[in-house]
Amino acid sequence: MIDLHTHTFFSDGALVPAEHVRRVEALGYKAIAITDHADSSNIHFLIPALLKAARDLNPHTTTRLIVGVELTHVPPALIDPLTKEARALGAQLVVVHGETPVEPVVPGTNRAALEAGVDVLAHPGFITEEEATLAARKNILLELSGRKGHSLTNGHVAKMATRTNAPMAINADAHGPGDFLTAAMAQTVGLGAGLSLEQYQAIRNNMTALVERLPQIG
């Protein structure tokens, strides 16, 4: 199991990074990305703190901690410069909080994230075929979400991704101990979105390939 979108108490999650990692280590996870909510107010604190946690924890755990960030509700014009800033600060993974139907995300956020070349577009709602085509061209993962509300458009996202050959990810968007996906539940998210078992396995392979490309920390 791998998850590329989770939150700790550095934003609106419940756990410190050490417990966060230990919880998924007990579930047999290979890797977990901590991608706390960020904008220009906290990105300079957040990424260095998670880098320190990764350096401390990774030598002692079987689950690899990946340092990420989720740019959340920032104006579309700021997504590209903040993506560059996050990478310069050492973020291994940049996620953008996409146009979920259950929050007032600014229209144009999906497109701006894709143009900025982020790694994962989280819960992109009613993403257009044109946007999914751009995700395919840039090899950006479109998220199928295990989180209540965000998951309402998983079927649409899966359809657009399948139609355009865009890669996908299945993530929990976990905020607390009860949110982490088991392997069985992750498969349910994929099949529930209308995917076949073969497509679900391709998603797992895509996520593994992304993690294996990232440099080790700690």
Description:
It contains eight helices and eight strands; from the N terminus they run βαββαβαβαβαβαβαα. It is α/β, with parallel strands linked by helices and 218 residues long. Helix 3 runs parallel beside helix 4, helix 4 packs parallel to helix 5 and helix 5 crosses helix 6. The longest helix has 17 residues. The chain is globular, with a radius of gyration of 16 Å. The two termini are 20 Å apart.
Question: Could you name the key traits of this structure?
Answer:
single chain, 218 residues, alpha/beta, 8-stranded parallel sheet, 8 strands, 17% strand, globular
Structure classification: alpha/beta
- Main sheet properties: 8 strands, parallel
Q: What is the mean predicted local confidence, pLDDT?
A: 97
Helix-strand pattern, N to C? EHEEHEHEHEHEHEHH
Give the N-terminus to C-terminus distance in angstroms.
Answer: 20 Å
Instruction: Label the overall shape.
Output: globular
Helix content: 40-55%
Instruction: Please tell me how large the radius of gyration is.
Output: 16 Å
How many beta-strand elements? 8
In the predicted model, the low-confidence regions spanning at least 5 consecutive residues are none
User: Helix segment count?
Assistant: 8
* Approximate strand percentage: 15-25%
Helix and strand arrangement:
Blueprint (H helix, E strand, L loop, with lengths): L1 E5 L10 H9 L5 E4 L2 E2 L4 H15 L6 E8 L4 H14 L3 E5 L11 H8 L3 E3 L6 H10 L2 E5 L8 H11 L3 E4 L11 H10 L4 H17 L5
Parallel strand pairs: 1-2, 2-4, 3-4, 4-5, 5-6, 6-7, 7-8
Helix pairs in contact: 3-4, 4-5, 5-6
